[in-house]
Amino acid sequence: MKGSWMPSSESVLGFLRRVRAVTTKELALLRHDRTVLAAVGAQPVVMLLVFGFAMSFEPRRVSWGVLDRSQTPASRQAIERVGTDEAFLSPQRVSGYVEGRDLLQRGTITALVVIPASYRRALEAGDGEVQVLLDGSDPLRAARVGGWIAQLLARPALDPPPPPVELRQEFRWNPTLSDRDFYLPALAGFLLTNLCLSAASLGLVAERENGTWEHLLAQPVRPIELLLGKLLPNVLLSYVGLVMCVLGAGLLYGFWPRGSLIALAVATLPFVLATLGVGVLVSALASNSAQSVFISVFFIMPSFVLSGSMLPYQLMPHGVREFGGIFPLRWFQIIARRIILRGGGLDEVWGPMAVLLAIFGGLLLLIRWRMKPRLG
After folding, report:
1. For residue 146, what pLDDT is reported?
2. What is the pLDDT of residue 210?
3. Which domain holds residue 37?
4. Neighbours of 357 (CB within 10 A)
5. Is position 197 within any domain?
6. Nearest residue to 352 (alpha-carbon basis) of 271, 284, 245, 275
7. What is the reported pLDDT for 371?
8. Rounded distance, CA 310 to CA 137, Å?
């Protein structure tokens, strides 16, 4: 109908044809780009090894010292409980506070356990106390080691033991509080952020540096069609990376998604589009490849830290926590953990998906404003 706001079928088909033409050109270029293809294959492997094996705050091979002023069977049992745990090395015995603090100062030990002379009597009275001095220069490690020692020393040392206080704790979705189970759901977010920004941020810059930007602008395509045509091949690459992350985590660590794979695939698309949008905006703002790489790195590092993927964002101070919400990775790590770790579905992640789509829409407006549709 004449004057209708609905686009005609011819205009829609023309739009799709032009987007397909740009996409076909980008796929042909991508097929011969060995650097990008190698990165897609290598990055998931490297990240699986880093976040599956290396990234862990669980105490391992902890060096510790002990100052035993009690010298009783009860104090020796307490030392043995800590010393026989696989997370701790054999203790270094010290003769006084000065020697123990010196070992802490030099980094020779991480913790110093001080058992007072009245330990046996206090234990019989139900009020046993042990002092633990910790190296607080690494707060995460200090907190884990201190908690581990407290848990080991909390076991009854008297025979017969006093009536215990039973505390029943149930940790849902991660019963062992494994660091690996915390990081692996967000692994795809780390990888896709790297891939999308690396690929998209160099797209328009490379066209300008190769002298083909003016040729593109002279083509009968609108800026939005050019943008979508350049993004679609990267969307395909992103899903290849997602599949590699899911399969790698499952095959190497037995960590499979508990929720729907279809829900994960659908919920990943807004994140990929938003991250690619950031990359294209960077490419539109940068004058050369060096600027593009610098801006991308400047974006990636805060994204990893402030998104809550490496550390819970709930623990961040006000202002910083809210600022982290501008990064697409913040919302994808929520999506990934709800689906992969908790077994949720699309009904539980529609909120973060809506935020990602809003970010993508805002980026499209900025990119359209920045890109000049024609020469001159």
Report:
1. 84
2. 72
3. 12-55+178-370
4. 15
5. yes
6. 271
7. 67
8. 19
What pLDDT, on the 0 to 100 scale, is given for residue 376?
Answer: 43
What residue ranges of the chain have pLDDT lower than 50? 1-2, 158, 163-167, 374-376
Strands of the sheet with 64-68, listed across from one edge:
92-93, 64-68, 111-115, 131-134
> In sequence order, which residues have a C-beta less than 8 Å from that of residue 81 and are 6 or more positions away?
152, 153, 155, 157
In the structure encoding, which two tokens stand for residue 308, read together?
């809550």
Q: How far is CA 94 from CA 1, 68, 78, 230, in A?
A: 92, 8, 16, 66
CB 157 within 8 A of CB 129: no
Distances (CA, A) of 138 to 103, 113, 230, 266, 315: 16, 18, 45, 39, 17
Please tell me whether residues 213 and 117 are part of one structural domain.
no
pLDDT in tens, 119-141: 888 777 777 788 888 887 766 77
pLDDT at 121: 83
Q: At what angle do helices 34-49 and 223-253 cross, to 10 degrees?
A: 40
Cα–Cα dist 99/112, whole Å: 10
CATH code, 130? 3.40.1710.10
Question: Do 258 and 344 form a contact (C-beta atoms < 8 A)?
Answer: no
Question: Taking every pair of C-alpha atoms in the chain, what is the biggest distance, in angstroms?
Answer: 98
Of 40, 43, 333, 356, nearest to 184 by C-alpha is 333
Q: Is residue 237 part of a domain?
A: yes
User: What token pair was written down for 32?
Assistant: 């011969």
Beta bridge partners of 133: 112
- Does the residue 340 lie in any domain? yes
* C-alpha dist (Å) from residue 293 to 192, 274, 275, 279, 297: 16, 18, 15, 10, 6
Let me know whether 315 and 366 are in one domain: yes
Task: Kindly tell me the sign of the dihedral angle through the C-alpha atoms of 57, 174, 320, 315.
Answer: negative
pLDDT at residue 217 in the model: 65
